[in-house]
Amino acid sequence: MNRPAPQAVQVAVPVPLPGLFDYLAPESGRLPAPGSRVLVPFGRRRLVGLVMGQGAPTTDGALKRIERVLDDQLVGRDLLELIEWCARYYGFVPGEAVNLLLPGALRRTRPFRVPPPRFLALTAAGSEADLKRAPRQAEIRQWLESGVLSRSDLLARGASTTALTRMLDAGLIESIPTPPPSPARPGPELNEEQRRAVASILRQRHGFSALLLAGVTGSGKTEVYLHVARRLLDRGRQVIILIPEIGLTPQLVRRIEARLGRPAFTYHSGLSEGERLATWQAARQGHADVIVGTRSAVFLPLLRPGLIVVDEEHDGSFKQQDGARYHGRDVAVLRARRLGIPIVLGSATPSLESLNNTEAGRYRLLELTRRAGQARQPHWRVIDQRGQSGYLAPQLQTTIARHLDSGGQVLLYRNRRGYAPVLMCNACGWQADCQRCSAHMTWHRQDERLQCHHCGSSARRPLRCPECGDPQLAELGVGTERLEELLSERFAPVPVHRVDRDSMSGKEDFEKLLETVRGGKPCILVGTQMLAKGHHLPGVTLAAVLDVDQALFSADFRAPERLGQAVCQVAGRAGRGQQAGEFLLLTRHPEHPLLAELVKGRYLPYARTLLEERRAAALPPATSLALLCAQAHQPEPARRFLAECARKLTTPGIEISGPMPAIMSRRGGYWRFQLWLQAERRANLAHLLSASVPALYDLPLARKVRWHVDMDPAEL
Questions:
Q1: Where in 158-284 does DSSP place strands (E)?
Q2: What local confidence, expressed as pLDDT, does residue 716 receive?
Q3: Residue 304 maps to a domain
Q4: Cβ atoms within 10 A of the Cβ of 30, count?
Q5: pLDDT of amino acid 1
Q6: Could you tell me if 421 and 477 are in contact, meaning their C-beta atoms sit under 8 angstroms apart?
Q7: By the 8 A CB rule, do 627 and 681 touch?
Q8: What are the residues facing 311 on neighbouring strands?
Q9: What separation in angstroms does the CA of 35 have from each of 75, 108, 659?
Q10: Alpha carbon of residue 427 to chain centroid
Q11: Which of 80, 186, 299, 539 is the most exposed place for a label (fewest CB within 10 A)?
């Protein structure tokens, strides 16, 4: 008599190993359903895993039991199917599902602290309680008599966490999921283009549709989002707005809450574990009507999904660069399709991938061609730097002075931190290079350190040249720190604000600076790409990009696209208020054909030119590309591993190039190599990787090198 095969569950465990792991039911005997959070033994550890499926064991041998079911069916089927597709397409291990679908507090084996309530209201008992001996509690009661308040608002008014906890325990106040909607503040009247865009999106509200909202900077794309969101919120639906950077969150949240009359829940890496858990739970239970988050928010559970918005969809920050290398924008489109809801991708400088999708009929293009209100597009001007010495061109200085004298503000973009990008010996040509990367070390004068911006290594500045002993070491090039110094000397006493990761290290530094600048007094802003991302600074009348030449001759085929996006985004910061704006582009190659197209001030024709070049060269998005990357402390193991992979992956219809060194061949002490895998049809490449990558783990060198798959890479 044959015994029936034991039933098991397949569990995703957060370890860097391919495949799911089989476990028997816990002692209770009941198999947990897919989506359940479970505690399992794994080697000598106990880990929190996620049940992905049920059935007969997929491997032979004795199986361990699940120790405990922590939550039954915590994650819905829709998210499990989404993450399974992502794991196959992007080539990451199934264990990453735990990290993507569960916030940190739910991934811990030890009990986690329940997040404090976000909104508080007075109870009947609290209204009648005698609080003569508790003046702090009486004060809190007085504040809450006007209605529901957030915990953060009460703390800002002077309430103590101790007093709030005591009142909660005594039943004098209570936690509520979300306050009732408050009166929404009316916004500016929409122009004809905006009204057409809103109507086009709302017509798709009953099913899936991907719409690319391509609007010039200052055209009012956010107003379009808000009008659509309000209509869907009134119908009881939830809205997710994905943004590329944490720095954009505070200003957007304030605007959303004022205009929609509802609290906006946030979800990003800058929050505490308790705050992220609170948003995750509110989204799952349907209490969060509006959620603003970075790329990881695309995996939040939703009870009443209605709309997904991806703002600044072109931004490279939507692509995860380690672990599960997914693209938040593309996963958002797939999720909207599976949920049967519309998705809006917004940008003044759309990615070539999205433009290609509009031309293929997969996305619908909605254009906003003029700025909202009375603001006009800035006047563009090219400054030829050939033959000029110094780091501030005379024409640039004259133009800055003119704008400051007329009460305007100036924004200068230079995407290099530090004082000088290169420290060099005048006598023998020695340069201060990083010992762990194929890169120069940047001189930071304020910290008196040489620093590598790729691996973080730092060193003291040598007193003499290490090669020849000469004491004269030249500081070549200009970074934001040096520009700050030069501008402060030339335009004193006008304040100069530097905006980069060195100067804006505090959590609220950037937001405080933006508030100061919005005061309108003349000043100069000098900084990196932090300045170019969607900030509304109505006082800025002059914007300038100080160096575009490196991108014109880069080995990365995406460099011209990024150049066009950065230039147009920076130009868009000028002239958003009442005064006319001006934009300067400084270059030593004014005759370059790409610049000739770009300086017309219209991004879409420039992007379509690049798209035709990509098609002619058979580069993405005309073809599908994946990188198989390997790195090791010595170059040969990484190269040999990829050569073995190339032999395993050779398939008709797939073009394999390499192994070849990465553009930065050495980084952080590791030599880096790549295989390029290209196919005309994306499905063919995705199928090859899904079927073949698990076998690569068994290659002899697989455990001697670091390696990963990068599908649709954003960086080379």
A1: 173-176, 209-215, 238-242, 264-267
A2: 84
A3: yes
A4: 10
A5: 40
A6: yes
A7: no
A8: 346
A9: 4, 17, 40
A10: 44
A11: 186
